[in-house]
């Protein structure tokens, strides 16, 4: 790596060629203030707060955009620099309503912090009193234009990171405003509520409705975890205070998603309104009645012990952790020799023995062929990568219907997969995204691209890769089960259809987090912890094993998915691994 030697505040520094002054300063711990700059975004030099003095330059220059050159001499806090920054802050504080005590970001606002840093304790210019609107038309967060400093971070996040291009700037000068599409209310715009703009906003202009005023950063805990909502497995941070989850934030260090999250991952889990199952229950006299864990597990163990292996059925949701799926397989398939086991969702067909591509290949591709999957709807962050590639000039070939969420971005929508394969064959670096919806004929047509394309199976369920690896697939026959163990977890099943072929006299055990028509029909219900209450790991659609963290205590008497199976194994006298670390290690070993 070529290094460039510069002097900053009298200190000799070497930084990689191509760095800007801000990056070189960060490397040695010199703090140059910023407002419009954000590490995940392209620098545009809009706010001027990062100005520094460079010997030989006619004016102050912006550190976030100016590249370093050999021998450069820089002053980052000279009297001239400080004077300029104070002026910028005076203008920003005067332009709109930044009355900090009334703002939910007070204490965490980058503008307010700069005000303290440069001693801004009053308005030297008469406050610009024009009232700007507040747009609360989006479900999850609102926009208060009065707090906006027009830094453009939101616009760049929406365009450059999410590739959704909803946001823009309208009007000029002091009347400039961030707007959506052709200036429609945000809630009626093309916004897909991913919250990326909310995450990068430095002030209280964009505000999360659910967690506003519920805690400043200093009062909260940030726990790194993995999103449990789809098979992409985005890294995220669970923000808690006093044992409650306040919100979900981006993890900018996450390898897969580099800070991106979608609505399903960032907001929906916090708006869950189903009723929790909080204690073990056994049906007695036709009614489900509360019971102890010990009594409930004993009842299940007795039923299972008295049942022929062929008459035991096991059905699992793919929302379960690797640890739970591993133990379920060990207990029922290996120890109890049950063979009638199944998965609640379908899986993408296995086209090759070895992985042929990864999600990271999408943004580098020139042709993307999508078949049998709708990532815009079900795995949105993967669709952001696709749209990003399209922005860069890649062709998107959709096989199937116009109702696919990616249809508006498609170059071609083809009914014939053979034609799509022909287009991909002519590309330089094609990527194939395929899912469970692909036909056998389609799957064999795709194989023609082996060696040419990067293949990424987009699994429909969260932890489908692990479920299939541990032996759970679609071979389940409900009618053959005399005892059915259903690990539903959080899976939303609106009807009891899943039980419709189960013998009326069958003994049904349901391990679930929420009350549903299925728990209502069960003979035994075991309360299960949800995504924020359990530790373990998940395997994403590429086969990466990623940690999920327990952020808060389970509701009532609920227990983690794996713990319940471990306790049941004990009651059945089966010696399985009991500590989470040991189970995780064994599960990960089997998944390799
Ligand atoms: S929520 Fe996402 S899609 Fe909507 S405006 Fe913000 S960045 Fe764009
Ligand atoms: S809404 Fe926030 S991120 Fe967007 S321009 Fe205004 S201050 Fe910047
Ligand atoms: S794409 Fe999937 S894993 Fe990523 S945030 Fe959205 S729901 Fe979660
Ligand atoms: S941070 Fe450099 S101009 Fe805004």
Helix content, binned percent? 10-25%
Computed CA radius of gyration, to the nearest angstrom: 28 Å
For the biggest sheet, the summary is: 7 strands, mixed
Small molecules in complex: iron/sulfur cluster, FE2/S2 (inorganic) cluster
C-alpha geometry: globular
Strand arrangement, major sheet:
15-14-25-24-23-16-17
Strand percentage, roughly?
15-25%
- The number of E-state strands comes to 27
- At the first level of CATH, the class of the largest domain is Alpha Beta
Number of structurally distinct domains:
4
Count of separate DSSP helical elements:
16
CATH topology grouping of the largest domain: Rossmann fold
Quickly give the CATH architecture of the largest domain.
Answer: 3-Layer(aba) Sandwich
- Contiguous uncertain segments of 5+ residues: none
Secondary structure category = alpha/beta
Termini separation (Å)? 35 Å
Overall mean pLDDT stands at 95
